[in-house]
Design brief:
It is built from six helices and seven strands. With 237 residues, it is an alpha+beta fold. The strands form two sheets. Strands 5-2-4-6-7 form a five-stranded mixed sheet, covered by helices on one side. A two-stranded antiparallel sheet has the order 1-3. Strand 6 and strand 7 form a beta hairpin. The termini are far apart.
């Protein structure tokens, strides 16, 4: 028996039905995309906080093994005992030692890379955190100068570990012959210097209206901040 004309007419979508399907799909996409973006931001934030806690643990163990002195804040920038080199070296199971070039040690999936910064920067980032250098940057009265000689924080002398940051999200610096490449952010921040506090802190988390930065404190706890607390301006020992 041949199919009837009515059956043949109902074998395909009508234009109206097709438009309805397209409209429903568009509505679903509009509902799901913000939720997916929020989930992605939450995942990035969780990974960043985990990175900071791991980096703190490595630095704290280093200080325990070196009479309370943490890794070097600044120089030597390209080798151990620089803090970033120590963290990445230990995070990779001890691969790479003093004298190893940063290109051989740093990589974009390392514990030193915040995924939120990676997602927003447009670069294959290899380091996105900075160490607190408040009171150790060579200003009058400072106890060290991280740019001129190896300078170390005395972990065992930090007065209020729960209110003192060790590592923070950092922002890229302008390009120059003595500055990091675009794949690395600032690696040190002196929070007393207004230029450092406003230009070197990386606000990678949250929306544009409430962009926050992450930090890990000397007690190993990590969290997000919108502003620099006044207690963070105390010079480090």
């Amino acid at each position: 028996m041949k199919p009837s004309a009515v059956t043949r007419e109902r074998s395909a979508f009508t234009l109206v039905e097709l438009l309805v399907v397209v409209a429903v799909i568009a509505v679903l996409i509009g509902v799901l995309l913000p939720a997916l973006a929020g989930a992605r931001r939450a995942g990035h934030a969780a990974a960043c906080l985990s990175n900071l806690r791991q980096a703190f643990t490595i630095c704290a163990y280093y200080a325990h093994d070196h009479n309370g002195h943490g890794p070097a804040i600044g120089v030597p920038y390209a080798s151990v005992p620089n803090w970033a080199m120590v963290v990445q070296t230990e995070a990779r199971g001890g691969a790479g030692r003093a004298g190893t070039s940063p290109g051989e040690v740093f990589h974009e999936t390392s514990v030193l890379v915040c995924p939120a910064c990676q997602a927003q920067s447009g670069e294959r980032m290899t380091r996105t955190y900075a160490m607190n250098a408040t009171g150790l940057s060579g200003l009058p009265g400072d106890g060290g100068d991280y740019d001129q000689r190896p300078t170390f924080i005395r972990f065992d002398l930090v007065q209020v570990p729960s209110a003192t940051p060790l590592l923070l999200d950092a922002a890229p610096l302008p390009q120059g012959p003595e500055l990091p490449p675009p794949t690395r952010t600032a690696s040190v921040i002196d929070l007393r210097q207004e230029a450092h506090a406003t230009q070197r802190i990386g606000r990678w988390h949250g929306g544009r209206a409430d962009a926050r930065f992450h930090a890990v404190r000397f007690d190993g706890s990590a969290g997000g901040y919108e502003e620099v607390p006044a207690s963070w301006l105390e010079a480090l020992p």
